Amino acid sequence: MTTFHSTFDPATLRQWDKLLGQVAAIAADHHDAVFASSLAAEDMLLLHAIVQAQAPIEVFTLDTGRLPAQTLGLIDTIAERYGVVVKAIKPDPAAVHEHVAQFGEFAFYESVDLRKACCAIRKVEPLRRTLQGHSAWLTGQRRGQSVTRVELAESEFDPVFGLQKYNPLALWTEEQVWAVIRALNIPYNPLHDQHYPSIGCDPCTRAVRPGEDARAGRWWWEQRTSKECGLHAGNLKAIDPQTV
Ligand code: SF4
């Protein structure tokens, strides 16, 4: 495992040390804690911390069936670099088939409701199924990512899925995330270098333009305040309960 090194910004170094302590404490408090990785830059950093802290936390990703090849490629990269198996959780094929047969392959562009229905089948139900029976989960969310995340807590009870939820990167800045990724040579999705700060399913993600916020490329045809897929539905309550 790479160790931290060099002339590093002291504030970021403190953040990193704190993160190592946080993941170790979460694993000690919850022997069944699981990490839901989107394989984004933040999640790669969090994975590195989990490995470095030797925290026995299982990692999974939601393989919606519409992820970019670059994202899926990280599963093999992680296995090679860290010896960690990322479990790819897939949606119920019958539910996907039924939805596509009824509404078409690209129904998510037609309305927020149809987009949420697709996310519910390909993401929310698989997540609910995976979290069932666990007492805690971790995410790589940050406050700075979106208007839907400005009040994100580092630790909170998740009322949607009924277990403790940890967002240990909540207070990290984008600059700090990338500083650590570069310093520790942490692997990341090559799409990040092509102006994709936030990466989801292929048809629902585009590159962002200068000055746009990090989530602007996700469901870009929708209002900013509706941009959660249901995995973090609790985030929307602070904005408008009707949007959950
Ligand atoms: S992000 Fe798009 S393709 Fe992926 S589950 Fe949601 S609506 Fe469907």
Automatic annotation (TrEMBL):
Cofactor note: Binds 1 [4Fe-4S] cluster per subunit.
Subcellular location: Cytoplasm
UniProt binding sites for [4Fe-4S] cluster: C118, C119, C201, C204
EC number(s) recorded for this UniProt protein: 1.8.4.10
Major enzyme class: oxidoreductase
Pathway membership, UniProt: Sulfur metabolism; hydrogen sulfide biosynthesis; sulfite from sulfate
SUPFAM superfamilies: Adenine nucleotide alpha hydrolases-like
Keywords in alphabetical order: Cytoplasm, Iron, Iron-sulfur, Metal-binding, Oxidoreductase
GO CC terms: cytoplasm
Catalytic activity from the UniProt record: [thioredoxin]-disulfide + sulfite + AMP + 2 H(+) = adenosine 5'-phosphosulfate + [thioredoxin]-dithiol
GO biological process: cysteine biosynthetic process; hydrogen sulfide biosynthetic process; sulfate assimilation, phosphoadenylyl sulfate reduction by phosphoadenylyl-sulfate reductase (thioredoxin)
Entry-linked Pfam families: PAPS_reduct (PF01507)
HAMAP family referenced in this protein's UniProt entry, alphabetically: CysH
Record-given protein name: Adenosine 5'-phosphosulfate reductase
